[in-house]
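Structure, all two chains, one model.
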Amino acid sequence: MTFSDVADWFQIYNHSFATALINAVMALSLYFSLRAGIFNLSAVGFMALGAYTAGIFAVKLGTISIVGITVGVLVSLAVGSILVFPILRLRGHYLAIATLSFGGIVQALALNLDSLTNGPAGLIGVPVTVKVWHLLIIVSVLVYVAWVLTTSRTGRAWDAIRTDLSAARAMGINVEHYRLVSFLISTATAALAGGLWAHVNRVIVPFEFGFPQLTFVLVNTLLGGISHPVGPVLGALLVSTMPEWLDKFEQYREMIIGFLLVVIVIYLPNGLIAPFATMRGRKFSFFKPTQAKPSEGES
Amino acid sequence: MLLQQVINGILTGSVYALFALGFNLVLGALNILNVAQGAIFTLSAFVAYYLISIYGVPFPLALLAATVAGGGINVLLELLVFRPLRSRGGSAMSSLVASIGASMILISVAQLMSGAQVERFPFGTLPEIQWTEFGMRISFTQVLVLVTTMVTMAGTYILLNRTRLGKAIRTIAFDERIARMLGIPTVSVARWTFFVSGALGGLAGVLLGIMYNSVYFLMGEPYVLKGFAAIVIGGFGSVTGVIVASMMIGLLEVFSTVIGIGTFRDVVTFGVLFLFLLFRPNGLFGRDEEVRP
């Protein structure tokens, strides 16, 4: 393969490669939440918020992309810091329901606030300014940040909280603080992914931020596994390039994604990266319940 | 006019109630938040639609078949997804993720079957009768939906409170280990719980499909979120609570249309859901449950 072949390949698959990298950013957003044991399903909602803010700034106000993307992240952080207090008081199914419903609210607003979002038809004409190399840098920086955080005091606190919240509290870890940090980082990352997506895809349609997208993000993150920050990125790249190798099965894509999610959860709960990632020499488990009584569960 | 709106609200509310009851049953007894309930809702509506439009099956029979199909699909999910997950020691959250995946599979089955078309029941599936009383218009379909939902709700209540199966389900909901120690066959009771839950979801799907006369592959999605709202507002595990909450949501939606914010009715519903999560996380009728660590 010569250099020009590679260049051609990039030309042809530019959009899918950019999409794959944005999926990697989304997967990292989920990583930040899951790492701290917060089963946060609101990432898609914040992605929509980031995408629409960036899109509205670019289309209606005509600002340069970085302004819209930054404002999108800030708006999401503002909304996130209001929501974080009620949400983090909840646990288990309640938390899942609240965060899922947030995604529902954002989607309903995007569908109905016609004057801002252009309703079901979608916001059209966002300039394509985000290039693949921008995304490569962003993903690398995020992985680095995630790795630094994970191996730092914060990461150790997250691990403790995820494994056993009460024990973590008993050890003197400021549980509320670390959960808040995790939630807000996750929020900002999701909004960033949304803003970037707006400038890659040209069009923002409300239906893209629904249930299939959530399934997709979950598959990406869990296929790779959250025992190492590279896991979610790996998962996202594998799943996102899947349509390329499964060309004939295009119409079965969603079915395959769903099937993959079920299989991963049952047979590969710690993801592909788990066997390679022995963080500080310890085995990592995510979905396995802790030693608590089964009736209490970990939720 | 006002009375008409109240009736509309109760009608949609009662369909929500059926759906949410199914949700609540599996959640309360087995601690599984089965998101695939929404897909079962859709698939059952399609089963009824195809039986009626292709095979000319009379509506009552199609309704029954679709209800049983809904239960059957849910049992299949239990066998293929939740049982293996449980035996491998998965947590409550992993069942939720698995059900999201299962739901995706079922929805795309419906999409492939229908070619993403919005289907309508053939004319004359139900008699086109309307009564006009006290300035209200009530159609035969509405009466049928109301009667069916009321009977089913009463049936579910009796099943849970007056039968051996109901007693077993409630015991498992209290504590699965204790239930096993008492000799309750927890595996088959769990399977029956899934069946009843799926049947309720399926019935709701067919009734909603015939009420709005439209069946399409994404119809279940909003109901999942409304079901969440109903079980949170009503309180996890409470039958009465869920029914009351569903009616409230139905009325809330109708009245947000009346005061002119109808396009934002979903936002209103979720707003109420958030308020409940914030101030009364155990819902209106919920038993006290340790929510905070």
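The longest strand of chain B covers residues 130-133.
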